[in-house]
């Protein structure tokens, strides 16, 4: 049974501007996500990655009905499965199935999250 659906879209230009403050990425990304982020060579790819994670975490918070504030960006981690597809890991939601899709264009990143009970 679906418990929540969330969607978010962000302009890459906003993320690029925010990246001027190094603490922005530290605030949004978990330590494991930052390792991947720092491994990218180009600023464009870093912006796409960061924007996608930002959108996915916002979409998760909306689907959970809690919003960022009750949930921290650090509470939500997007990891890749064995095929490279994104998966969301949130300790408080370990008993639920969470689906995530992340996409981006030259100008935007977007994500959709569906949370469902495992029953």
UniProtKB/TrEMBL annotation:
Domain 4'-phosphopantetheinyl transferase: start-end pairs: 4-112
Enzyme class per UniProt: transferase
Binding residues annotated for Mg(2+), in chain numbering: 8, 58
Protein name per Swiss-Prot or TrEMBL: Holo-[acyl-carrier-protein] synthase
Any GO molecular function: holo-[acyl-carrier-protein] synthase activity
Keywords on record: Cytoplasm, Fatty acid biosynthesis, Fatty acid metabolism, Lipid biosynthesis, Lipid metabolism, Magnesium, Metal-binding, Transferase
Localization annotation: Cytoplasm
NCBIfam families: acpS (TIGR00516), pantethn_trn (TIGR00556)
Enzyme Commission number: 2.7.8.7
Cofactor list: Mg(2+)
Presence of the UniProt keyword Heme in the record: no
Gene3D superfamilies: 4'-phosphopantetheinyl transferase domain
InterPro entries reported for this sequence: 4-PPantetheinyl_Trfase_dom, 4-PPantetheinyl_Trfase_dom_sf, ACPS, Ppantetheine-prot_Trfase_dom
Entry similarity comment: Belongs to the P-Pant transferase superfamily. AcpS family.
Reactions performed catalytically: apo-[ACP] + CoA = holo-[ACP] + adenosine 3',5'-bisphosphate + H(+)
Role of this protein: Transfers the 4'-phosphopantetheine moiety from coenzyme A to a Ser of acyl-carrier-protein.
């Amino acid at each position: 049974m679906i418990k929540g659906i969330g969607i978010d879209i962000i302009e890459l230009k906003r993320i690029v501007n925010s990246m001027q403050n190094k603490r922005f990425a530290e605030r949004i990304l978990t330590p494991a996500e930052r390792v991947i982020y720092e491994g990218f060579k180009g600023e464009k790819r870093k912006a796409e990655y960061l924007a996608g994670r930002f959108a996915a975490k916002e979409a998760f918070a909306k689907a959970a009905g809690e919003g960022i504030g009750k949930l921290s960006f650090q509470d939500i981690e997007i990891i890749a499965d064995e095929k490279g597809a994104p998966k969301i890991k949130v300790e408080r939601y370990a008993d639920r199935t969470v689906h995530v899709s992340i996409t981006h264009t030259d100008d935007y990143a977007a994500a959709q999250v569906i949370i469902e009970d495992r029953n």
